[in-house]
UniProtKB/TrEMBL annotation:
This is ChsH2 C-terminal OB-fold domain-containing protein. Pfam families: OB_ChsH2_C (PF01796). Transmembrane segments: none annotated. Coiled coil: none annotated. Gene3D superfamilies: 6.10.30.10. Residues 69-131 form the ChsH2 C-terminal OB-fold domain. It comes from Paractinoplanes rishiriensis.
Amino acid sequence: MTLPEPVTSMAGPLRMDYTYVAGTGRSAFLRGLAGRRLLARRCPGCSRVYAPAPEFCARCLEPVGPPFELPGDGVVSTFCVVNFPFPGQAHEPPYVVAHIRLTGADNRLMHLVREIAPDRVRIGLPVEPVWGAPDTSTASIRYFRPVPGA
């Protein structure tokens, strides 16, 4: 007996609308992206630098300070090569999703890494953003690419 093809997707009557509230901390980062700037905020208590920043420090619960601009580059701190297709996928595999530690920040930003073969991506790879259309979302950065000469 031949088995039928597996069901890969199905339409359903359910819909979920939601609103993401960035809060005052992350709003500064998102507004900076619209101006092609990477903004961070520093905790006055422990000096930890966040980009994007919460409203309060995760370590000492102090309100973070005013926004300031970071240089704009960073390094890959960890990554995943996506090799398998799945329904609704926005990019053709293989592609790399990485945590980027922006220069001057203590936390990481998850984004795509392009313009390099996936098997050449490594932890510590210096990267820079490739900007897209200005927007108050991380879509303002199309992806990160290796810094020339890296």
